[in-house]
Amino acid sequence: MKEECLICKALLEYLEADEVMECAICHRKENSKARCVEGHYVCNECHTAGMDAIIGMCLKETSKNPVEILEKMMAQPFCHMHGPEHHVMAGSALLTAYKNAGGDIALPQALAEMVSRGKSVPGGACGFWGACGAGISAGMSVSIISKSTPLAVEPFALSHRMTSKALGEIGAVGGPRCCKRNSYLSVLAAVDFVREHLGIGMEKTEIVCGYSAQNNQCIGKRCPFARVNH
User: Which of 122, 101, 166 is nearest to 140 (CA)?
Assistant: First the structure.
């Protein structure tokens, strides 16, 4: 089996109810439903250490293809097979590609907001909230682009419809979770949505997953990005 716990490499387990956990790295105590089978817990902050590099990466990026940008992030040391870093990465890749494709946004401020919002979505949201953080991240990107607020009209609608579209794609494939698959699905859904509703044509390419060997719960040929499907 592939390693999952950042401390001892053991498999993760999910509890039915929150328990007070102490992070094995920073010793912060907080409620969580997730730990490894040996009892280790790593908080979201420690799990995503180094993720601030995303802003610098994106500001140097020239690609109009959010999948290409996303995969560069996935190759960085801060990115694990699964984890809440994907809740920031999907939206950041979309904002960057949107800007490079001609979108009118102040990218440094947009990325800073994306990091702030994305980090607020905890790991495990896909299973416990019924809303994958990568899908929410795609909705956040449209919210940031359209300057949505709780009192907005059209931007409010657009950001909800974007999140719904991404989550619909994720739900259609089903579980168990795969942060890579769900990030890909969310970004591809956003490329089509943004072209239709915001008039900006980001690029996209065929995706063939290279992470199946690292995923204990890989769904194989049921995944639209599996090598056997291409």
Answer: 166
What residues pair up with 29 in beta bridges, in sequence order?
Answer: 22
For 65-80, letters b (16+ CB in 10 Å) and e give: bbbebbbbbbeeebbb
Q: Which residues pair with 19 in a beta bridge?
A: 32
CA atoms within a 13 Å half-sphere pointing along the CA-CB vector of 108: 2
Give the pTM. 0.91
Q: Please state at what angle helix 133-146 crosses helix 179-198, rounded to 10 degrees.
A: 30
Cα(first)–Cα(last) distance of the chain, in Å? 26
CB of 141 within 8 A of CB of 94? yes
**Looking at 23-155, which runs of residues are DSSP E strands?**
29-36
pLDDT digits (tens, 9 = 90+) for 182-191: 999 999 999 9
Residue keyed to tokens 């490329």: 191
